[in-house]
Amino acid sequence: MPILNRSNGNYFLKVSDKTGNITAVLFKQTAANSDMGKLKKGQQIILSGKISEYKSSLEIIADKIEYV
Q1: How far apart are CA 24 and CA 4, in angstroms?
Q2: What distance in Å separates the CA atoms of residue 3 and residue 25, rounded to the nearest whole number?
Q3: What is the pLDDT of residues 37-54, one digit of tens each?
Q4: Measured between alpha carbons, how far is 42 from 65 in angstroms, rounded to an integer?
Q5: How deeply is 45 buried, as exposed, middle or buried, from its count of CB atoms within 10 A (0-12, 13-18, 19+)?
Q6: Cα-Cα-Cα-Cα dihedral sign, residues 24, 29, 34, 40
Q7: Does domain 3-67 match CATH 2.40.50.140?
Q8: pTM of the prediction?
């Protein structure tokens, strides 16, 4: 699970499964309530949130991250 970018406390992740990949955004408040230190490359996670469109691409605006 590589972190694409971290800016002003916001995290931008590229997540993938057998169907493809998508960018997930964890805004500062969500990231602050999550243990982002546990996030490692290749780690399985469960995200919940809303699908949104940004610059003609779909993304997940995450409101919760769980570590498997």
Answers
A1: 10
A2: 10
A3: 888 888 899 999 999 999
A4: 15
A5: middle
A6: positive
A7: yes
A8: 0.84
